[in-house]
Amino acid sequence: MENMINLTIDNRPVSVPKGTTVLDAAAGIGINIPALCHIDLKGTCVKNSPASCRICVVEIEGRRNLAPSCATQCMEGMVVKTNSARVVRARKTVAELILSDHPNDCLTCPKCNDCELQKLVTRFNIREMPFKGEQSTRKKEVTAAITRNMDKCILCRRCESVCNNVQTVGVLGAVRRGFDTTIAPTFDKDFKDTDCTYCGQCVAVCPTGALTERDNTDRLLDDLCNPDKVVVAQPAPAVRVALGEEFGLEPGTIVTGKLATALRYLGFDYVFDTDFGADLTIMEEGAEILHRLKAFLGGDKSVKLPIMTSCCPAWVNFYEHNYPDLLEYPSSAKSPAQMFGAIAKTFWAQKMGIPREKLVVVSVMPCLAKKYECERDEFSVDGNPDVDYSISTRELARLIKRSNIDFRSLPDTDFDKPMGESSGAAAIFGATGGVMEAALRTVYEVYTGKTLPRLEFQDVRGLDGIKEATIDLAGFPLKVCVAHTLGNARILMDKLREGSLDYHVVEVMACPGGCIGGAGQPYHHGNVEILKARSRAIYREDEGKPIRKSHENPDIQKLYKDFLGEPLSERSEKLLHTRYFDKSIK
Amino acid sequence: MSELKLSCEAVRRVEETCEKFNNDPGELISILHECQNNLGYLPEAVQRIIARKLGIPVSKVYGVVTFYSFFSMTPKGKNPVSVCLGTACYVRGSDKVLEEFKRVLGIDVGETTPDGKFSLDCLRCVGACGLAPVATIGEKVYGRLNPSDIRKIVSEFDD
After folding, report:
1. Which site in A46, A85, A215, B7 is 20 to 30 Å from A398, CA atoms measured?
2. CB contact under 8 A, A170 and B44
3. In terms of residue numbers, what domain contains A30?
């Protein structure tokens, strides 16, 4: 073929399309060249290849210097050595030099056993530290969601690429020069004083322990052991398709039943499900979509369209910081986790006779921004938050291991009633396009009064950055759009500001792939196949559910009958809806 | 880093500078240069305007400002003091001259006195090596300096 390049890597012939890097060509024939600063979540826009760390160097015949394979394109007739003595020694020296300004406190590092630098040290057989020099002492910061310890930073710039190019949030960047170079939020401020959305994608790609989550596991252990507290769990949809990875199960293994059992064994008094909150979200948001649509079709010019989803707390932060002039477009519906908290601490607590201050609602989330969301003032009553705090999928895995629970051998159990019942529509909230699909299932049937001929909306599934579809609502063409990553959201919001965004409903998720690629999930280390496997599992979970539409969830129906009345009722508005604030930096 | 409100006039000048360079992100350094010349320094508010006009993240603007020692985020004093630490001046004792400036003015390199009268910087060679060690205050050059001269020189600037 014309556009194919033939070369030899480690004496093995290989043929690759023009433009392929040596690193990718080698990977294609099972030669795994180590890399550190490089990350490429193929099929998404998450990429960083500055060729700055020099771990991935290879020897190319006829070239004097070693070449970084992540940034060197294959050429016809190239002869590459990835494992010559010269290369192996150079790589080891590069790693040793990185270690010379690293705290090397691996034993107590939060990233221990998940650190890419640590793995290279083992792989390169480094058994002593030959270089001793000055150690940098950089800022440490613990925010609501993210912990920053820049002494562990190796200046790979992955976080900078993600924050600026993928999310277009523009907070993290390299400042100063030489030995003083560090990655810092703008103007060396604390995260809370910047435009940081707490999406946490910087944490998701950090190869070392420089950026990690704020750890709430000790706090949770204390509550679980406190006999005066009633502790309630609500795990998010995306957690059950990723948690297994932490225990050596294949990516995409569904562990819903084991998850419920593990939470019980940990000592949670009630094990409910955020999916219940997701069904509730569809009821409220769906009603809002219909309300705005009907007003629009009735000729009301002031109605704000498109209506935008509001489940993702990083996305909420993003528009509060960057688009304060457009705050009337997003749905006022709270996120599923917050809806769950609001119902648990009112309806359910009253029914059970548990005083609010005794009740601890803990969410298990694939997300770090959820930690921040719990701390928003409007989500608490007299200082008592609706959701007390959130732990990530990774934190839950650590807690399970620490509590001597053999996860793989756990039996399956169901979630408790009534807030553990959910539909397949709720399950798919975890993947990009899922909230849209779940909303469409309900909106279609409520609007047309007919049963959907086919539940699956394939056009809004998959990893494309911006997806669109037109749905026939009894003759009315409903135009919808789904975006993931905040960079793609920015494209839509800029169009909206110009007045050229021609949709009725828009879904946005901040993380690549949606919540399955959230910053609280087991680290993907740049392997996009893991995200794809989780996504497939999400849709399998949906298919396996007896009820697949939110409005058919019997416990949701009962909640409206017994307590809320109907969607957008006065009580629903009070408990399940919120408002947004101008948080732009002036 | 004091957070101060820019005057409308200053905002307009920054925007004009960006427009003069066609809001081209490739001209970031030239734009920063000109803004610093106009305003004396590059406070946060100025960097935010530049980022917005050029359509680049403010993190990038801040990264460039901190990378080059020429750029400053603190306002310069009315009389900016620069001590030469070039080779010729250094071997003739400019490090001691610098120490004496620090002591007399009570500030460190890169800082400005609280009354705004003096700021202190060091540079590499003003092209007057025959006069080493050399310092400049504003446009005026002082040569063959001795640490014992400094207090008197500074007092020349008393109003």
Report:
1. A46
2. no
3. 4-99
**Nearest by Cα to A34 from A77, A107, A90, A76:** A90
Which of B105, B110, B81 lies closest to B94 in space, CA to CA? B81
- The residue in chain B having the minimum alpha-carbon distance to the alpha carbon of residue A188 is B62
Interchain CB distance below 8 Å, A175 and B62: yes
Q: Tell me whether B52 touches chain A (CB under 8 Å).
A: no
Task: Give me the domains of chain B, ranges plus CATH numbers.
Answer: 8-67 (no CATH), 79-155 (3.40.30.10)
Catalytic: which of A74, A206, A311, A481?
A311
Same domain, A572 and A504: yes
**Which residue positions in chain A have pLDDT lower than 70?**
1-2
- Choose, out of A159, A167, A187, A193, the residue to mutate when testing the contact with B (most B CBs < 10 Å): A187
Q: A474 is written with which tokens?
A: 């009894």
DSSP A373-414: HHT-GGGEETTEESS-EEEEHHHHHHHHHHTT--GGGPPP-P
CB of A209 closer than 8 Å to CB of A388: no
pLDDT by residue (tens digit) across A212-227? 999 999 999 999 999 9
CB-nearest to A174 from B44, B58, B63 is B63
CA dist list (Å): A261 to A172, A250, A271, A504: 40, 19, 9, 41
Q: Which residues contact B48 (CB under 8 A, 6 or more apart)?
A: A585, B58
Burial class (CB in 10 A: 0-12, 13-18, 19+), A390: buried
User: To the nearest whole angstrom, how far is the Cα of B154 from the nearest Cα of chain A?
Assistant: 31
For residue B42, give Cα distances in angstroms to A169, A178, B50, B109, B149: 22, 22, 10, 17, 33
* ipTM value: 0.87
Contact A175 B60 (CB under 8 A): no
pLDDT band at B4 (very low <50, low <70, confident <90, very high): low
The amino acid present at A577, given as its one-letter code, is: H
A111 part of the active site: no
Q: Are A185 and B59 within 8 A, CB to CB?
A: yes
Q: Are residues A386 and A238 in the same domain?
A: yes
Q: Which of B5, B47, B66 to mutate to test the interface with A (most CBs of A within 10 A)?
A: B66
Instruction: Select the residue of B44, B48, B57 nearest A173 (Cβ to Cβ).
Output: B57
Query: Which residues fall within 8 angstroms of residue A277, CB to CB, at 6 or more apart?
Result: A234, A335, A336, A337, A338, A339, A340, A343
Does A139 share its domain with A33?
A: no
Is residue B37 very low, low, confident or very high in pLDDT (cuts 50, 70, 90)?
Answer: confident
Q: How many CB atoms lie within 10 A of CB A489?
A: 28
Contact status of B48 with chain A (Cβ, < 8 Å): yes
Instruction: Tell me which amino acid residue A44 is.
Output: T
Identify whether residues A444 and A523 lie together within a single domain. Answer: yes
